[in-house]
Amino acid sequence: MIEAENVHYSYPSKVEALKGVSLTIKDGEFVAIMGQNGAGKSTFVKHFNGLLKPSFGTVKVDGVETIKSSVATLARNVGFVFQNPDHQLFSETVEDEIGFALKNFGFEAKAIEDRITWALNLLSLTQYRKTSPFLLSGGERKRVALASVLAWDPKMLVLDEPTIGQDYEQKEKLRQFIMQLQTQGKTVVAVTHDVEFVAECNPRVVLMKEGRIVADGEGQQILTDPAILELSSIVLPQIAQVFAKLSALGLPKDIIDIQEAKTVLLKTKGKQ
Amino acid sequence: MALIEIKNLTYTYPGVSKPSIHDVSIKIEKGEFVLITGPSGCGKTTLCRCFNGLVPHFYQGEIKGEITVAGINTLDHHTYEMAKHVGLVFQNPENQLFALSIEKDVAFGLENVGVSREEMRKKVDWALHQTGIYDIRERSPHEISGGQQQRVAIASVLAMEPDIIVLDEPTSFLDPLSAEKIFDVIYKLNKEQGITVVLVEHRLDLTAKYTNHLIVMDQGAVRLEGDPRDVLSNEETRLIGVGIPKATLLYQMLKKEDYSLGNKTPLGSEELADQILETLK
Question: Which of A106, A119, A243, A271 is most buried by its number of CB atoms within 10 A?
């Protein structure tokens, strides 16, 4: 469980990135944190594994205040995947990259081998096992970064913009994988501005603006509220856009799912 | 003659055995808004690097085939000679901004090709206005938002008045509203200035509505190409793993159920909503 209470954070440049953020994320929840560039999303989630410590207020992970713990200890439970994979990759081969944290956490050689193989397979990277991460495409490097964190199987996962540079199929795989993690009771926090991805996953959505939380609720409810979204520089998902434009017909507006959209429209008289 | 003509291009990066581009032939006409999409690692970025000669002059490697851009054979001409014709905007604007002020960044390319001071002033101001960053021209490119940086990168390319602008996922780091504004700027340049645009994107939900020439790549080859409405209606496009815009997909699903809609495959929510309203009138 993550409990943030009245978190303030100022960068050394004195820019106040967080201005009193309170949020509780329960075990097993899937939360998407959305909002415009510079809203403080990344700054906020960096508090979950202790990379940043609040200037004021508290962040507790499983009841322990992060200022009383180290990043190394927190990381075992909270895996963090950065927005830009180049900030995190450094090994000579993809395999070494994935094995690095496992070695540090003291896994046995056989377990390391098995977990590397599992993670490579999961993220369609098996063919690049011996390749340098720096020879891979942007989207592939992003997956290596994700694989290297998933490999140690943390209880909570923080993903900063996991879908950047990913094609549709990889996004769909990521979605299914997150759903699978949910069934295992794992917590997933994703910072993202990929509205279509969020619409397909339909998680709890937290909207941030200028260092504060401005909305918190079910995905379907928030992603179909144009006024709230505009406040955070988010656009409606495409299905919701269609229904917003059909408002004169008196159809429900809170639709983000394509199957539901089809069902609703087939009931209109367009069916011959 | 087409503005960009690539014939039987095969290219392999140094130290790699498999070609990244395999027997690609495409033609791009002046004034087109081309969208290149395809699964991650399919060769889109590599193809963009061919348009201004970064491949093969900077990246080296082995190349076969012909590339002609604005009548110039890029294999025989250096990247700096191509800069007047082709402007490249990268995925991450941080990688291309470096000057102390935005206007200096925008002027850099012109300084290199020896344009007179008055003319430079004119062109830089024009590019700053086109991208909506004239008012912040004296600020440092490193203290502005990602969206503004993206605009600076586009302005720097625009100031050179290239025939072609190539943009490789230019908004992937931006929030959706900022991304939409950037695409609107690019679309306006294409419509009003007649600049040929080549855009690489995965997110067709955001971009399909702008294009009139869609290219789908897979494993280094061009698999489908043409009118975006035809390409997006083709089952193969979906099978390759291209994310069909949800409005297009919903149209196809409704059509399958004999819901009466027009025959024009919609590229965005507006077109689909209009068709539904039309049928329910």
Answer: A119
